[in-house]
Amino acid sequence: MNDNDKQNALDRNLAEMFSMDRPEVTEDFESRLVQAVGRQVQGRRRQRMQRRWFIRASAAAAALAMAILVARQSLIDGDGPIGTLTDIRGLVLVSNGADVQLAEGQRSLHTEQWVQTQSGTTAQVVLSDQSRVTPSPRTVMQLDKQKQGHIVRLTKGAVAIAAQKQPEKQYLMVETPGTAIKILGTTLDVRVVERPTGVKQTRVHLHSGSIEVASGGVSTRLWPGMVSTTEEGKPPETESSVLEVNEIRRLLQETRRRAEATNAQANMPMIVDHVSSTAWTIVPLSQFDAGPGDVYSLRLKYAAFGVKAYTLPGAAVKTHAEGRVVHVDLSERPKEVEKVTNIVLRVPRAAGLFRMNGPAYELTAPAAAANAVTLLQVCLPKSATVQAVQGRIIDRVVATSKRLNRLIVTLEADSQTPRIYE
Known about the structure:
The structure is a single chain. The longest helix has 49 residues, at 29-77. The chain has 3 helices and 31 strands. The strands form 3 sheets. The chain has a 17-stranded mixed sheet that branches. Strands 18, 19, 20, 21, 22, 23, 24, 25, 26, 29, 30 and 31 form a 12-stranded mixed sheet that branches. The protein is α+β, with helices and mostly antiparallel strands and 422 residues long. The protein folds into 3 domains: 37-77; 83-241, Jelly Rolls (Sandwich); 244-413, Sandwich (Immunoglobulin-like), CATH 2.60.40.
Protein backbone atom coordinates (compact mmCIF):
# COMPACT_ATOMS: atom_id res chain seq x y z
CA MET A 1 0.00 0.00 0.00
CA ASN A 2 1.43 3.35 -1.14
CA ASP A 3 1.02 6.70 0.58
CA ASN A 4 -1.97 7.72 -1.58
CA ASP A 5 -3.85 4.56 -0.73
CA LYS A 6 -3.20 5.16 2.98
CA GLN A 7 -4.51 8.73 2.73
CA ASN A 8 -7.64 7.58 0.86
CA ALA A 9 -8.42 5.00 3.52
CA LEU A 10 -8.06 7.63 6.23
CA ASP A 11 -10.39 10.00 4.40
CA ARG A 12 -13.02 7.30 4.04
CA ASN A 13 -12.88 6.44 7.71
CA LEU A 14 -13.19 10.08 8.71
CA ALA A 15 -16.16 10.59 6.42
CA GLU A 16 -17.87 7.51 7.85
CA MET A 17 -17.27 8.71 11.37
CA PHE A 18 -18.72 12.16 10.77
CA SER A 19 -21.72 10.71 8.98
CA MET A 20 -22.77 8.85 12.10
CA ASP A 21 -25.58 10.11 14.35
CA ARG A 22 -23.42 12.33 16.56
CA PRO A 23 -23.96 15.79 17.96
CA GLU A 24 -22.76 18.51 15.69
CA VAL A 25 -19.31 19.85 16.33
CA THR A 26 -19.60 23.39 17.69
CA GLU A 27 -17.31 26.31 16.98
CA ASP A 28 -15.57 26.04 20.37
CA PHE A 29 -14.64 22.42 19.73
CA GLU A 30 -11.03 23.25 19.03
CA SER A 31 -10.61 25.33 22.18
CA ARG A 32 -12.33 22.66 24.26
CA LEU A 33 -10.14 20.00 22.69
CA VAL A 34 -7.03 22.01 23.54
CA GLN A 35 -8.23 22.48 27.11
CA ALA A 36 -9.03 18.79 27.50
CA VAL A 37 -5.69 17.75 26.09
CA GLY A 38 -4.04 20.35 28.37
CA ARG A 39 -5.83 18.94 31.40
CA GLN A 40 -4.73 15.41 30.46
CA VAL A 41 -1.14 16.54 30.01
CA GLN A 42 -1.15 18.40 33.35
CA GLY A 43 -2.73 15.38 35.05
CA ARG A 44 -0.10 13.09 33.59
CA ARG A 45 2.63 15.51 34.73
CA ARG A 46 1.18 15.65 38.25
CA GLN A 47 1.07 11.86 38.34
CA ARG A 48 4.66 11.63 37.21
CA MET A 49 5.69 14.29 39.78
CA GLN A 50 3.75 12.50 42.52
CA ARG A 51 5.37 9.22 41.58
CA ARG A 52 8.81 10.84 41.64
CA TRP A 53 8.05 12.51 45.00
CA PHE A 54 6.79 9.24 46.44
CA ILE A 55 9.89 7.41 45.25
CA ARG A 56 12.13 10.12 46.67
CA ALA A 57 10.14 10.28 49.94
CA SER A 58 10.21 6.51 50.22
CA ALA A 59 13.95 6.49 49.67
CA ALA A 60 14.38 9.27 52.25
CA ALA A 61 12.11 7.46 54.72
CA ALA A 62 14.03 4.24 54.16
CA ALA A 63 17.30 6.07 54.70
CA LEU A 64 15.90 7.72 57.83
CA ALA A 65 14.60 4.40 59.13
CA MET A 66 17.98 2.83 58.44
CA ALA A 67 19.71 5.70 60.23
CA ILE A 68 17.36 5.32 63.21
CA LEU A 69 17.94 1.58 63.22
CA VAL A 70 21.70 2.02 63.02
CA ALA A 71 21.60 4.68 65.74
CA ARG A 72 19.43 2.49 67.95
CA GLN A 73 21.67 -0.50 67.34
CA SER A 74 24.66 1.71 68.07
CA LEU A 75 23.08 2.68 71.38
CA ILE A 76 22.42 -0.96 72.12
CA ASP A 77 25.69 -2.38 70.86
CA GLY A 78 28.10 0.52 71.27
CA ASP A 79 30.84 -0.60 68.92
CA GLY A 80 29.39 -4.09 68.94
CA PRO A 81 28.88 -6.74 71.61
CA ILE A 82 30.25 -5.79 75.03
CA GLY A 83 30.78 -9.36 76.11
CA THR A 84 30.29 -13.04 75.45
CA LEU A 85 28.33 -15.51 77.57
CA THR A 86 30.15 -18.84 77.63
CA ASP A 87 30.83 -21.96 79.70
CA ILE A 88 27.10 -22.34 80.40
CA ARG A 89 26.24 -25.19 82.75
CA GLY A 90 22.54 -25.29 83.49
CA LEU A 91 19.75 -22.83 82.77
CA VAL A 92 20.75 -19.24 81.93
CA LEU A 93 18.27 -16.60 80.78
CA VAL A 94 19.15 -13.48 78.79
CA SER A 95 16.69 -10.61 78.62
CA ASN A 96 16.38 -7.22 76.91
CA GLY A 97 13.54 -6.32 79.25
CA ALA A 98 10.35 -7.99 78.04
CA ASP A 99 12.02 -10.43 75.66
CA VAL A 100 13.49 -13.37 77.60
CA GLN A 101 15.59 -15.99 75.82
CA LEU A 102 17.24 -19.20 76.92
CA ALA A 103 21.01 -18.98 76.41
CA GLU A 104 22.66 -22.00 74.86
CA GLY A 105 26.21 -22.63 73.75
CA GLN A 106 27.87 -19.26 73.38
CA ARG A 107 26.21 -15.94 72.62
CA SER A 108 27.07 -12.27 72.37
CA LEU A 109 25.84 -9.85 75.01
CA HIS A 110 24.94 -6.22 74.40
CA THR A 111 24.43 -3.16 76.56
CA GLU A 112 21.61 -3.17 79.10
CA GLN A 113 20.99 -6.90 78.74
CA TRP A 114 20.14 -8.92 81.84
CA VAL A 115 21.69 -12.29 82.66
CA GLN A 116 20.01 -14.58 85.18
CA THR A 117 21.38 -17.90 86.40
CA GLN A 118 19.03 -20.46 87.88
CA SER A 119 19.59 -22.88 90.77
CA GLY A 120 22.57 -25.14 90.16
CA THR A 121 23.71 -23.04 87.19
CA THR A 122 27.09 -21.50 86.47
CA ALA A 123 28.37 -19.55 83.50
CA GLN A 124 31.04 -17.04 82.58
CA VAL A 125 30.90 -13.65 80.90
CA VAL A 126 34.01 -12.49 79.08
CA LEU A 127 33.81 -8.71 78.60
CA SER A 128 35.25 -7.02 75.52
CA ASP A 129 38.37 -6.01 77.52
CA GLN A 130 38.83 -9.70 78.49
CA SER A 131 37.75 -9.14 82.09
CA ARG A 132 35.85 -12.16 83.39
CA VAL A 133 32.64 -12.13 85.43
CA THR A 134 31.50 -15.46 86.88
CA PRO A 135 27.98 -15.39 88.37
CA SER A 136 27.01 -17.88 91.04
CA PRO A 137 23.72 -19.81 90.88
CA ARG A 138 20.57 -17.71 91.47
CA THR A 139 22.27 -14.49 90.37
CA VAL A 140 20.67 -11.59 88.49
CA MET A 141 22.91 -8.99 86.83
CA GLN A 142 22.75 -6.43 84.05
CA LEU A 143 25.65 -5.58 81.74
CA ASP A 144 26.31 -2.12 80.38
CA LYS A 145 29.11 -0.06 78.89
CA GLN A 146 29.64 3.66 79.14
CA LYS A 147 32.47 6.05 78.41
CA GLN A 148 34.36 5.20 81.58
CA GLY A 149 34.16 1.44 81.01
CA HIS A 150 32.05 -1.64 81.62
CA ILE A 151 29.34 -1.78 84.28
CA VAL A 152 28.01 -4.85 86.07
CA ARG A 153 24.77 -4.15 87.94
CA LEU A 154 24.25 -6.90 90.51
CA THR A 155 20.78 -7.01 92.04
CA LYS A 156 20.81 -10.54 93.44
CA GLY A 157 23.33 -13.31 94.10
CA ALA A 158 27.11 -13.19 93.78
CA VAL A 159 29.81 -12.74 91.15
CA ALA A 160 33.53 -13.45 91.05
CA ILE A 161 35.42 -10.90 88.97
CA ALA A 162 38.88 -11.12 87.41
CA ALA A 163 39.33 -7.66 85.90
CA GLN A 164 41.99 -6.78 83.38
CA LYS A 165 44.18 -3.77 84.12
CA GLN A 166 42.09 -0.80 83.04
CA PRO A 167 43.24 2.03 80.73
CA GLU A 168 43.94 5.41 82.27
CA LYS A 169 40.77 7.18 83.49
CA GLN A 170 38.72 4.02 82.95
CA TYR A 171 37.53 1.34 85.33
CA LEU A 172 35.17 -1.58 85.64
CA MET A 173 32.23 -0.60 87.81
CA VAL A 174 30.12 -2.97 89.89
CA GLU A 175 26.86 -1.46 91.12
CA THR A 176 24.71 -3.08 93.81
CA PRO A 177 21.77 -1.59 95.75
CA GLY A 178 23.26 1.46 97.44
CA THR A 179 26.90 0.61 96.67
CA ALA A 180 29.32 1.39 93.83
CA ILE A 181 32.64 -0.44 93.42
CA LYS A 182 35.36 0.91 91.13
CA ILE A 183 37.75 -1.78 89.92
CA LEU A 184 41.08 -0.77 88.42
CA GLY A 185 42.32 -4.28 87.62
CA THR A 186 41.91 -6.94 90.25
CA THR A 187 40.16 -10.09 91.40
CA LEU A 188 37.33 -9.99 93.90
CA ASP A 189 34.03 -11.51 94.97
CA VAL A 190 30.84 -9.46 95.29
CA ARG A 191 27.70 -10.77 96.97
CA VAL A 192 24.29 -9.20 97.57
CA VAL A 193 22.29 -10.61 100.49
CA GLU A 194 18.96 -9.55 101.89
CA ARG A 195 18.74 -9.21 105.64
CA PRO A 196 15.58 -10.27 107.55
CA THR A 197 14.62 -6.58 107.71
CA GLY A 198 14.52 -6.44 103.91
CA VAL A 199 17.62 -4.24 103.66
CA LYS A 200 20.07 -5.39 101.00
CA GLN A 201 23.69 -5.79 102.05
CA THR A 202 26.72 -5.89 99.76
CA ARG A 203 29.80 -7.88 100.73
CA VAL A 204 33.05 -7.47 98.81
CA HIS A 205 36.14 -9.65 99.26
CA LEU A 206 39.23 -8.28 97.48
CA HIS A 207 41.86 -10.84 96.45
CA SER A 208 44.29 -8.71 94.43
CA GLY A 209 44.63 -5.23 92.96
CA SER A 210 42.75 -2.26 94.35
CA ILE A 211 39.14 -1.14 94.43
CA GLU A 212 37.13 1.78 95.71
CA VAL A 213 33.86 1.09 97.53
CA ALA A 214 31.36 3.93 97.87
CA SER A 215 28.20 3.83 99.97
CA GLY A 216 26.27 6.32 102.07
CA GLY A 217 28.29 9.21 100.67
CA VAL A 218 31.60 7.71 101.87
CA SER A 219 34.29 6.19 99.65
CA THR A 220 36.82 3.63 100.96
CA ARG A 221 39.86 2.17 99.22
CA LEU A 222 40.58 -1.51 99.83
CA TRP A 223 43.77 -3.56 99.76
CA PRO A 224 43.94 -7.25 98.88
CA GLY A 225 42.76 -9.43 101.74
CA MET A 226 40.19 -6.91 102.95
CA VAL A 227 36.44 -7.36 103.16
CA SER A 228 33.91 -4.54 102.87
CA THR A 229 30.33 -4.75 104.10
CA THR A 230 27.82 -2.07 103.15
CA GLU A 231 24.13 -1.48 103.60
CA GLU A 232 22.00 0.90 101.57
CA GLY A 233 22.59 4.45 102.78
CA LYS A 234 25.38 3.55 105.25
CA PRO A 235 29.17 3.99 104.92
CA PRO A 236 31.29 0.89 104.20
CA GLU A 237 32.60 -1.18 107.09
CA THR A 238 35.95 -2.84 106.39
CA GLU A 239 37.85 -5.68 108.02
CA SER A 240 40.28 -8.42 107.15
CA SER A 241 39.24 -11.68 105.54
CA VAL A 242 41.42 -13.36 108.22
CA LEU A 243 39.61 -13.92 111.52
CA GLU A 244 42.72 -13.59 113.70
CA VAL A 245 43.63 -10.20 112.25
CA ASN A 246 40.19 -8.85 113.15
CA GLU A 247 40.43 -10.44 116.59
CA ILE A 248 43.85 -8.97 117.40
CA ARG A 249 42.62 -5.53 116.31
CA ARG A 250 39.66 -5.93 118.68
CA LEU A 251 42.05 -6.99 121.47
CA LEU A 252 44.14 -3.87 120.85
CA GLN A 253 41.11 -1.63 121.22
CA GLU A 254 40.12 -3.45 124.41
CA THR A 255 43.68 -3.21 125.78
CA ARG A 256 43.74 0.55 125.25
CA ARG A 257 40.33 0.93 126.90
CA ARG A 258 41.41 -1.06 129.98
CA ALA A 259 44.75 0.76 130.23
CA GLU A 260 43.05 4.15 130.06
CA ALA A 261 40.61 3.14 132.82
CA THR A 262 43.48 2.16 135.19
CA ASN A 263 46.03 4.76 134.09
CA ALA A 264 48.35 1.98 132.93
CA GLN A 265 50.55 1.42 129.94
CA ALA A 266 48.84 -0.36 127.00
CA ASN A 267 51.02 -3.06 125.47
CA MET A 268 50.39 -4.87 122.21
CA PRO A 269 48.15 -7.93 122.53
CA MET A 270 49.09 -11.37 121.27
CA ILE A 271 47.28 -14.52 120.15
CA VAL A 272 49.06 -17.83 120.71
CA ASP A 273 47.58 -20.96 119.12
CA HIS A 274 49.00 -23.89 121.06
CA VAL A 275 47.38 -26.40 118.69
CA SER A 276 49.22 -25.15 115.59
CA SER A 277 52.19 -23.49 117.38
CA THR A 278 51.33 -20.22 115.66
CA ALA A 279 51.67 -16.75 117.14
CA TRP A 280 49.84 -13.60 116.03
CA THR A 281 51.40 -10.37 117.19
CA ILE A 282 51.51 -6.64 116.41
CA VAL A 283 54.93 -5.15 115.70
CA PRO A 284 55.38 -1.38 115.31
CA LEU A 285 56.84 -0.53 111.91
CA SER A 286 59.53 1.43 113.78
CA GLN A 287 60.99 -1.93 114.90
CA PHE A 288 61.69 -2.88 111.28
CA ASP A 289 64.78 -1.84 109.34
CA ALA A 290 63.76 0.41 106.44
CA GLY A 291 65.15 -0.56 103.04
CA PRO A 292 64.91 0.81 99.51
CA GLY A 293 61.59 0.83 97.69
CA ASP A 294 59.40 0.93 100.81
CA VAL A 295 60.55 -2.56 101.88
CA TYR A 296 61.07 -3.21 105.62
CA SER A 297 62.95 -6.07 107.30
CA LEU A 298 62.69 -7.74 110.71
CA ARG A 299 64.85 -10.51 112.21
CA LEU A 300 62.76 -13.10 114.05
CA LYS A 301 63.59 -15.61 116.78
CA TYR A 302 62.09 -18.28 114.52
CA ALA A 303 62.37 -19.28 110.87
CA ALA A 304 60.69 -16.67 108.71
CA PHE A 305 59.46 -19.21 106.16
CA GLY A 306 55.66 -19.11 106.01
CA VAL A 307 55.35 -15.80 107.90
CA LYS A 308 52.46 -13.64 106.72
CA ALA A 309 51.96 -9.92 107.26
CA TYR A 310 48.91 -7.66 107.39
CA THR A 311 48.17 -4.03 108.07
CA LEU A 312 46.08 -3.30 111.13
CA PRO A 313 43.02 -2.45 108.99
CA GLY A 314 43.31 -5.98 107.58
CA ALA A 315 45.08 -5.77 104.24
CA ALA A 316 47.50 -8.51 103.23
CA VAL A 317 51.08 -7.31 102.71
CA LYS A 318 53.60 -8.94 100.37
CA THR A 319 56.38 -10.78 102.22
CA HIS A 320 59.41 -12.87 101.44
CA ALA A 321 61.77 -14.67 103.79
CA GLU A 322 65.50 -15.15 104.06
CA GLY A 323 66.36 -17.48 106.92
CA ARG A 324 65.04 -15.75 110.03
CA VAL A 325 64.55 -12.38 108.31
CA VAL A 326 61.13 -11.43 106.98
CA HIS A 327 60.79 -8.62 104.45
CA VAL A 328 57.46 -6.78 104.09
CA ASP A 329 56.77 -4.77 100.93
CA LEU A 330 54.57 -1.70 101.37
CA SER A 331 55.32 -0.19 97.96
CA GLU A 332 51.98 -1.10 96.39
CA ARG A 333 49.67 0.40 98.99
CA PRO A 334 47.24 2.97 97.53
CA LYS A 335 48.31 6.58 98.08
CA GLU A 336 44.98 7.35 99.75
CA VAL A 337 45.58 4.78 102.49
CA GLU A 338 46.64 6.16 105.86
CA LYS A 339 50.32 5.72 106.65
CA VAL A 340 51.09 2.27 108.03
CA THR A 341 52.44 2.36 111.60
CA ASN A 342 51.89 -1.24 112.76
CA ILE A 343 52.26 -4.66 111.14
CA VAL A 344 50.37 -7.79 112.20
CA LEU A 345 52.55 -10.86 111.83
CA ARG A 346 51.47 -14.48 111.68
CA VAL A 347 54.47 -16.58 112.76
CA PRO A 348 54.12 -20.36 112.40
CA ARG A 349 56.24 -22.82 114.40
CA ALA A 350 56.71 -20.29 117.25
CA ALA A 351 57.96 -23.00 119.59
CA GLY A 352 58.69 -22.09 123.19
CA LEU A 353 55.92 -19.54 123.76
CA PHE A 354 53.58 -22.26 125.00
CA ARG A 355 54.50 -25.64 126.39
CA MET A 356 53.06 -28.46 128.44
CA ASN A 357 54.09 -28.80 132.10
CA GLY A 358 52.50 -32.02 133.22
CA PRO A 359 48.72 -31.70 132.72
CA ALA A 360 48.95 -27.89 132.62
CA TYR A 361 49.63 -25.45 129.77
CA GLU A 362 52.39 -22.97 130.51
CA LEU A 363 52.84 -19.58 128.80
CA THR A 364 56.07 -17.65 129.10
CA ALA A 365 55.67 -13.86 129.29
CA PRO A 366 58.14 -11.35 130.79
CA ALA A 367 57.00 -9.14 133.67
CA ALA A 368 56.37 -5.49 132.94
CA ALA A 369 58.75 -2.84 134.30
CA ALA A 370 55.78 -0.61 135.16
CA ASN A 371 52.02 -0.91 135.57
CA ALA A 372 50.84 -2.28 132.25
CA VAL A 373 47.93 -4.02 130.60
CA THR A 374 48.53 -6.79 128.10
CA LEU A 375 45.78 -9.00 126.70
CA LEU A 376 46.95 -12.50 125.85
CA GLN A 377 44.62 -14.85 124.01
CA VAL A 378 45.53 -18.52 124.05
CA CYS A 379 43.96 -21.18 121.85
CA LEU A 380 43.89 -24.65 123.39
CA PRO A 381 42.41 -27.95 122.21
CA LYS A 382 38.64 -28.01 122.45
CA SER A 383 38.86 -30.78 125.07
CA ALA A 384 40.87 -28.58 127.46
CA THR A 385 39.23 -27.04 130.54
CA VAL A 386 40.08 -24.01 132.68
CA GLN A 387 40.38 -25.22 136.28
CA ALA A 388 42.81 -22.64 137.64
CA VAL A 389 45.01 -19.82 136.38
CA GLN A 390 48.22 -19.25 138.29
CA GLY A 391 51.09 -16.86 137.80
CA ARG A 392 52.43 -13.62 139.16
CA ILE A 393 51.70 -11.66 136.00
CA ILE A 394 48.17 -12.92 135.37
CA ASP A 395 45.50 -10.59 136.70
CA ARG A 396 42.33 -12.28 135.54
CA VAL A 397 40.58 -14.38 132.90
CA VAL A 398 38.68 -11.95 130.72
CA ALA A 399 36.67 -14.44 128.64
CA THR A 400 36.48 -18.03 127.48
CA SER A 401 34.75 -19.32 124.36
CA LYS A 402 34.93 -22.13 121.84
CA ARG A 403 35.61 -21.54 118.15
CA LEU A 404 36.95 -23.65 115.31
CA ASN A 405 37.64 -26.66 117.54
CA ARG A 406 39.54 -24.49 119.97
CA LEU A 407 39.05 -23.42 123.55
CA ILE A 408 39.73 -19.67 123.48
CA VAL A 409 40.97 -18.15 126.75
CA THR A 410 41.63 -14.41 126.97
CA LEU A 411 43.85 -13.31 129.87
CA GLU A 412 44.67 -9.87 131.22
CA ALA A 413 48.31 -9.75 132.33
CA ASP A 414 50.57 -7.21 133.97
CA SER A 415 53.39 -8.08 131.63
CA GLN A 416 55.26 -7.16 128.51
CA THR A 417 54.22 -8.67 125.20
CA PRO A 418 56.20 -11.85 124.48
CA ARG A 419 58.64 -10.95 121.70
CA ILE A 420 58.94 -13.06 118.60
CA TYR A 421 61.69 -10.87 117.07
CA GLU A 422 65.24 -9.98 118.09
